[in-house]
C-alpha cells in the first residue's frame, strides 16, 4: 500500500487522475471502476482536464459503478446512476452503453447482482477502481462485519451511513435502507485500487484502514492485502495517521523515474 498526503482536494484529484490514466493506457480493453460521493469529484474534473488537453483519451473505456440504492430508478436524480451519468459519463464523454451501474429496481435483485459480476468478468475485469471511505470504514456499501471475500450483493445500510448520506436527499425524504454493492472480494479483484479520503470525519476510519489490523470491522482495511493499492488523503483525513511524517518523506523521496504523480 502506498500512502500520499496531499495539500488539498485539487492536488488529490490531479495525482489520482494521472495515476488512473497511466494504468488505463496499459490496457487493451480499459475498464475504470467509479465511485460516487463528493471526494472523487476533483478526480473526475482532473480526468476531464487531461482529456481536454490531449493528454488522455478516455472515450473508449468501459466503467462500472460500485453500488446503487435499492428502489431508486436510474432516472431518479438521487440515484447513483444519475450521479454517475452527470459526474462521469457526461463529463468524460463516455459512451453511456459502456457505463454500468447495478440495477436497484430489478425484479430479481439476487440474479441482478450475479449478472453484474458476470458483466465485470466479461469486460475483462476492472483495471483501476476508484474508492471512497465511509466514516465507519466502509468501501462501496460494504458495512462493518462484511465478509472480506464478499461478492456483489444486497446490503442493509448502517444508520451512520444513512445519516451521512442524508445531505443528498431533501429534508422530507428518507435515505433508502438497502443497496446493491460490489463486495470486498469483487473490489479486490481490480488490478489497481485508488482510495481517496478527505476531511476530519474520515480520519479515524482511514487510520484504521491503513495502520490498523485487517478486520471486517473496518472493511477498507482489506486493501492492505492488495498488491497495487494507492491511498490519497488530504491533511485533515491524514490527521490520525501515526506515520504521517513517513508518508510525506516517502512522497518527497521517490526514486527517480518512479513518481506515481506524474504523467
Describe this structure in words.
With 263 residues, this protein is an alpha/beta fold. The protein has one domain: Rossmann fold, CATH 3.40.50.1360. The protein has eight helices and ten strands. The longest helix has 17 residues. The mean pLDDT is 94.
Please render the helix and strand layout as text:
Layout: E1 2-6, H1 9-25, E2 31-34, H2 41-52, E3 62-65, E4 67-69, H3 80-92, E5 99-100, H4 109-122, E6 128-131, E7 153-156, H5 159-165, E8 178-181, H6 184-188, E9 192-197, H7 203-211, E10 229-234, H8 244-252
Relevant terms:
single chain, three-stranded antiparallel β-sheet, 263 residues, 8 helices, Rossmann fold, alpha/beta
Strand order of the largest sheet: 1-10-9-6-2-3-5
Average pLDDT metric: 94
Annotation field: number of helices: 8
In the CATH hierarchy, the third-tier topology is known as Rossmann fold
Described by the principal axes of the CA atoms, the overall outline is: globular
Structural class by helix and strand composition: alpha/beta
In short:
The chain is α/β, with parallel strands linked by helices. It has helices at residues 9-25, 41-52, 80-92, 109-122, 159-165, 184-188, 203-211, 244-252; strands spanning 2-6, 31-34, 62-65, 67-69, 99-100, 128-131, 153-156, 178-181, 192-197, 229-234.
Amino acid at each position: 500500500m502506498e500512502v500520499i498526503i496531499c495539500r488539498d482536494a485539487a492536488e488529490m484529484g490531479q495525482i489520482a487522475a494521472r495515476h488512473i490514466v497511466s494504468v488505463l493506457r496499459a490496457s487493451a480493453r480499459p475498464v475504470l471502476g467509479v465511485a460516487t460521493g463528493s471526494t472523487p469529484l476533483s478526480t473526475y474534473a482532473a480526468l476531464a482536464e487531461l482529456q481536454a488537453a490531449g493528454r488522455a483519451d478516455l472515450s473508449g473505456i468501459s466503467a462500472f459503478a460500485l453500488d446503487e440504492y435499492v428502489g431508486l430508478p436510474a432516472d431518479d436524480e438521487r440515484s447513483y446512476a444519475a450521479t454517475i451519468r452527470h459526474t462521469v459519463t457526461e463529463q468524460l464523454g463516455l459512451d453511456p452503453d459502456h457505463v454500468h451501474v447495478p440495477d436497484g429496481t430489478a425484479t430479481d435483485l439476487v440474479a441482478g447482482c450475479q449478472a453484474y459480476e458476470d458483466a465485470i468478468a466479461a469486460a475483462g475485469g476492472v483495471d483501476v477502481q476508484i474508492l471512497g471511505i465511509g466514516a465507519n470504514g466502509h468501501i462501496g456499501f460494504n458495512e462493518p462485519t462484511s465478509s472480506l471475500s464478499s461478492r456483489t450483493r444486497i446490503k442493509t445500510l448502517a444508520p451512520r451511513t444513512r445519516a451521512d448520506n442524508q445531505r443528498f436527499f431533501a429534508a422530507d425524504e428518507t435515505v433508502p435502507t438497502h443497496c446493491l454493492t460490489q463486495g470486498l472480494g469483487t473490489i479486490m479483484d481490480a488490478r489497481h485500487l485508488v482510495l481517496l479520503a478527505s476531511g476530519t470525519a474520515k480520519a479515524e476510519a482511514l487510520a484504521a484502514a491503513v495502520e490498523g489490523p485487517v478486520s471486517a470491522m473496518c472493511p477498507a482495511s482489506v486493501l492492505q492485502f492488495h498488491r497495487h493499492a494507492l491511498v490519497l488523503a488530504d491533511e485533515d483525513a491524514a490527521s490520525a495517521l501515526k506515520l504521517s511524517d513517513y508518508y510525506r518523506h516517502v512522497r518527497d523521496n521517490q526514486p527517480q523515474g518512479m513518481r506515481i504523480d506524474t504523467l
